[in-house]
């Protein structure tokens, strides 16, 4: 009796995005099975955020298609959104709200029943350690706490898939360590795709690395494979042609 293949929770099929003659991403394809934590690597401007916005439904692809938990993000947007939690690099936070008000607002937008919403707010408050700041204005919170609030809203509706764009940007070393712990814990029950250009963030959390450069996929494998016969940094520089002379 053969083992059942894991369910594919994130899929990109030939994704491309053009802005006139400018190519943001070109023909990117990959699949991510249930329960995997994947780091989406690339230099600044490589196209990481563009790809993630397409996968999360915030941007339309020029070519290709994207799927979340089997749902076409373009044709079945609402069904895909129910399975997806998205944490963009900046936001979505309303600085004049408290974390409690923000979570209440997002829960109502997602049409969660009042009893369920109350339970979910309690749960994500605990998961993201927001108890001490729940009724403070978000504008008064540190960057680390603001990031926790953003993660809490992404988790509020209990999604199966979590996509995060540069989730540790601007955090100090202690905050980064706390965020890593959160990701590892969440990875026990969710499929996670997170983008970063910070190489030392990869090994502590990721099962797999997808690396893009100039909008194209140039590596897909384990962190161990990426650093074969050298460091992750060395192979990153090689794959992205860092230091290559220009005309």
Key structural traits:
six-stranded mixed sheet, Rossmann fold, alpha/beta, 247 residues
Could you give a quick summary of the protein structure above?
The protein has helices at residues 48-55, 77-83, 99-109, 114-127, 143-155, 173-186, 202-205, 223-226, 232-239; strands spanning 8-19, 22-33, 37-41, 63-68, 71-72, 84-87, 161-165, 191-196, 208-213, 216-221. It has 247 residues and is an alpha/beta fold.
List the helices and strands and how they pair.
Blueprint: E1 8-19, E2 22-33, E3 37-41, H1 48-55, E4 63-68, E5 71-72, H2 77-83, E6 84-87, H3 99-109, H4 114-127, H5 143-155, E7 161-165, H6 173-186, E8 191-196, H7 202-205, E9 208-213, E10 216-221, H8 223-226, H9 232-239
Parallel strand pairs: 3-8, 3-9, 6-7, 7-8
Antiparallel strand pairs: 1-2, 1-4, 4-5, 9-10
Helix pairs in contact: 3-4
């Amino acid at each position: 009796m053969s083992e059942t293949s894991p369910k594919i929770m994130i899929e990109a099929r030939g994704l491309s995005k053009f802005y006139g003659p400018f190519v943001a991403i070109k023909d990117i394809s990959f699949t991510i099975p249930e329960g995997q934590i994947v780091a989406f690597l690339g230099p600044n401007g490589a196209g990481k955020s563009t790809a993630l916005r397409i996968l999360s439904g915030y941007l339309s692809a020029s070519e290709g298609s994207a799927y979340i938990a089997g749902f076409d993000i373009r044709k079945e947007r609402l069904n895909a959104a129910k399975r997806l939690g998205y944490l963009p690099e900046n936001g979505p936070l309303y600085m004049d709200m408290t974390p409690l008000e923000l979570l209440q607002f997002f829960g109502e937008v997602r049409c969660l029943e009042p009893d369920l919403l109350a339970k979910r707010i309690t749960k994500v408050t605990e998961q993201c350690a927001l108890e001490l700041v729940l009724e403070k204005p978000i504008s008064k919170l540190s960057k680390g706490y603001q990031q926790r609030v953003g993660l809490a809203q992404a988790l509020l509706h209990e999604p199966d898939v979590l996509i995060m764009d540069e989730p540790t940007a601007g955090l100090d070393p202690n905050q980064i360590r706390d965020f890593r712990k959160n990701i590892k814990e969440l990875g026990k029950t969710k499929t996670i795709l997170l983008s970063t250009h910070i190489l030392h963030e990869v090994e502590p959390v990721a099962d797999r690395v997808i690396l893009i450069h100039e909008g194209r996929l140039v590596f897909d494998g384990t962190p161990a494979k990426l650093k074969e016969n050298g460091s992750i940094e060395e192979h990153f520089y090689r794959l992205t042609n860092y230091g290559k002379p220009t005309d």
